[in-house]
């Protein structure tokens, strides 16, 4: 199932796209619809979606400006516009695809097929792609001990002792790593629950492989314990 969101300042255009998407109800879940750029900027940072269908010409801020404000993004973007003139710029913005209004059902079917293929390949490979400023690393999530926030970047620490500075924030890593394997124990740390050796309740610290000690947020402690228990049962 592909989880999608829509951003378009025209309600009529949203209704039209929703109608077309509903023809593929067994393949698509529409999780959010926005007519205001500001609202979308706030909520899309927390909403887990696979793809955003994004209008280009909007008052106040166009679709390209919106993407700059949102960066780094954790989902694919399909531009939806009445104007073909933006195709080259959409490619430069690394758009997943480009649809002309009114959206044709066959074109939408093609885009959904591409999204499904990419999602399936990512799932079947079992590995995640990590971008640095100069390299691409393909790594097994199970090899990662923990990830640490570094502003808009993140450090990834692996079992082999490697330390990789990834050009994505911690929220992005949280979105691409398996939910059942990783938990955000603190706003600065994402840990592999299978690499936890000890929970220091007195100091609210989590002890990982190689004696790494990381702080556990008081607000996340209850959920963390439940996740840890669930992980132990599955193991």
TrEMBL record:
TM regions (residue ranges): none
Protein origin, superkingdom: Bacteria
Residues in Response regulatory domain copies: 3-116
Keywords, ordered alphabetically: Phosphoprotein
All residue ranges annotated as the HTH LytTR-type domain in the record: 128-230
Gene3D superfamilies assigned to the protein according to its UniProt record, in alphabetical order: 3.40.50.2300, LytTr DNA-binding domain
Residues recorded as bearing 4-aspartylphosphate in the entry: 55
Molecular-function GO terms, alphabetical: DNA binding; phosphorelay response regulator activity
Protein name: Two component transcriptional regulator, LytTR family
Organism listed in the record: Algoriphagus hitonicola
